[in-house]
Amino acid sequence: MLKDKRILLIVAGGIAAYKALELVRRLQDQGARVRGILTAGGANFITPLALAALTGDKVHENLFSLTEESEMGHIRLARDCDLVAVVPATAHLMAKMAAGMADDLAATVLLATDKPILLAPAMNVVMWNHPATQANRALLEKRGVRFVGPGAGDLACGEVGSGRLAEVPDILAAIAALATPDQPLQGLRALVTSGPTREPIDPVRFIANHSSGKQGHAIAHALAGLGAEVTLVTGPVGLADPDGIRVVKVETAQQMLAACLKALPADVAVCAAAVADWRVKKPGAQKIKKVKGAAPPVLELVANPDILATLAALGADRPGLLIGFAAETEDVVKHATAKRQTKGCDWILGNDVGPESGTFGGDANTIHLVDSSGVETWPALSKDEVADRLAKRIALALVARPPRPGKGKRR
Ligand code: C5P
């Protein structure tokens, strides 16, 4: 996805600087070429040698070094790239950028560049929340500088709160999105399931659940925003059809499965629907009557097909990347991890749907992403933000993957 993109990586001073080294590797895995600038503060945390060894290039450190300026002037350094990323970005460097200062190589390059700039801040929670830092962030954002993170959690200083460097995969995804503003999923096909299913008891009654479809619809919208050709197979929801998406409306799990199979091939499928596990074996052909004095009817249930597991077991027609959700009310990570195995999908997004979580029908969601490498817990995000983050991750995974012949990919 980042093939031949030239990333100028500025590493400023902060304990999280070591993560910039991992980022270099990950950028190179994506085909990017990385050139490094180390600030004086950054050099307290990682060595120029480590950065040079990984980038395979000289590390630029000095604005007033005759050798460095004669080899490559700071203006050329600022322009000979597709994107400038600052990882980690300190409060001090943000303040210098906001003020337009140019007292060292990093600040000068940031002032002289005409390329997109991405900042991944990392600092103490009080520093991040300080009105000065927040004013600088707002000003920089207004000028078009983009931010990834910071996340919340335990900080190196021992305090807890906002200020953690964003996770490397998220920085990578943000770089990819910014360096390839065109639509990275163009020419790829996505299938998304959303909403509940409705299993009839008789022509007027049904079994259903609280799923609002907000998360699935948001994912379909986000994938389309990145250029994918999306089919959204949805159960009954009170949401408008997202623009530019083929929407297939179904009621039951069996109809949902049939619609999904019809929508294949797909490069990615995200099963976000809350599919009813059981249906009534023999729904009444007419409304079941309440007869005074008679015992209430007993509903015999049979298992519904598992759409996610069915797609996973398709062999040649299996979507290239298959993602499920695990809506749980307890032990979310444990159940999500087990579910990834039993269903045979690639990623599973565990989320808490207990009554006090407010997930079902609400606007926020806390995700635990389980893949073959482990578990990653995302902060509480809006469902739109979850969709955005997931879509970017999907883009990164799909575009990095070699095309599989005969699959949905139609470039
Ligand atoms: O087993 P459980 O319902 O918790 O699994 C959740 C995941 O499996 C979700 O991704 C959901 O969309 C999918 N699923 C499905 N078909 C079913 C049941 C669940 O696709 N019958």
Give keywords.
single chain, 411 residues, alpha/beta, Rossmann fold, eight-stranded mixed beta sheet, five-stranded parallel beta sheet, 21 strands, disordered C terminus, binds cytidine-5'-monophosphate
Tell me the strand percentage band.
15-25%
- Given the structure, what is the number of helices? 14
CATH superfamily (homologous) name of the largest domain: CoaB-like
Radius of gyration: 25 Å
Report the CATH architecture of the largest domain: 3-Layer(aba) Sandwich
Specify the structural class. Answer: alpha/beta
According to DSSP, the number of beta strands is: 21
How many domains make up the 3D coordinates? Answer: 2
Helix percent reads 25-40%
Q: Mind describing the biggest β-sheet?
A: 8 strands, mixed
Uncertain segments are 402-411
Q: Ends: how far apart?
A: 14 Å
Question: How do the strands of the widest beta sheet line up side by side?
Answer: 12-11-8-13-16-17-19-20
What is the overall shape? elongated
Q: Any idea of the CATH topology of the largest domain?
A: Rossmann fold
| Overall CATH class of the largest domain | Alpha Beta
Give an overview in words.
The chain is α/β, with parallel strands linked by helices. The chain folds into two domains: 6-179, Rossmann fold, CATH 3.40.50.1950; 189-400, Rossmann fold (3-Layer(aba) Sandwich), CATH 3.40.50.10300. It has 14 helices and 21 strands. The strands form six sheets. The chain has an eight-stranded mixed β-sheet, sandwiched between helices. A five-stranded parallel β-sheet has the order 2-1-3-4-5, sandwiched between helices. A two-stranded antiparallel ribbon has the order 6-7. Residues 402-411 have low confidence and may be disordered.
